[in-house]
Amino acid sequence: MSPEEREAAEAANGADLATAQAELEQLRAKNTELTEQYIRAQAEMQNTRRRADEEMSKARKFAIESFAESLLPVTDSLEAGLAHKDATPEQIREGAEATLRQLKTALERNKVLEIAPAPGARFDPHQHQAISMVPAPGQEANTVVAVLQKGYLIADRVLRPALVTVAAPQ
């Protein structure tokens, strides 16, 4: 190899080396930037998880607050009724009926709904619990004859099934 070719090769190698070093520096800078972005993303994810956990904890802790608030007037009515020493039976009955209306309103406002199937309604094992089967002439089998105890739903979930008697097959 001639000295000119050698110089040209060294110059090319030098240029390649300078280009490679510049690319290496760019890659290191990009690596540092990506590492910082990753660390920030991890920190943000941990903060989001912590905030979500705190919110869930507060939600569990205070979930019943609204329900309890709606029951306070019912408590007040019962206490006021008990404070009346000279009440007649009619007054006691009127007060009990008014308090029951308050209680039902409070339950409905909090999505607690009655399950009270009408006689003749189809027996639904998801919402009803059959206590007994009784002969019911003129009524289709597996239909409700009587409700012994109302059931309740809360947000479409059975809190307590209705206790019913069911028409026996004939």
Features:
170 residues, alpha+beta, three-stranded antiparallel beta sheet, three-stranded mixed beta sheet, 6 strands, elongated
Rg from Cα: 38 Å
The helix-strand sequence is HHHEEEEEE
What is the residue-mean pLDDT, rounded to a whole number? 91
- The beta-strand count equals 6
Q: Residue share in helices? A: 55-70%
Ends: how far apart? 114 Å
Low-confidence stretches: none
What is the compact description of this entry?
By secondary structure, this protein is α+β, with helices and mostly antiparallel strands. The protein is built from 3 helices and 6 strands; from the N terminus they run αααββββββ.
Topology, please?
Elements: H1 3-62, H2 65-83, H3 89-109, E1 112-115, E2 128-134, E3 144-149, E4 151-154, E5 157-160, E6 162-167
Parallel strand pairs: 2-6
Antiparallel strand pairs: 1-4, 3-6, 4-5
Overall description:
The protein is 59% helix and 18% strand. It is an alpha+beta fold and 170 residues long. The strands form 2 sheets. The protein has a 3-stranded antiparallel sheet with strand order 1-4-5. α2 packs antiparallel against α3. The N and C termini lie far apart (114 Å). The model has no long low-confidence stretch (mean pLDDT 91).
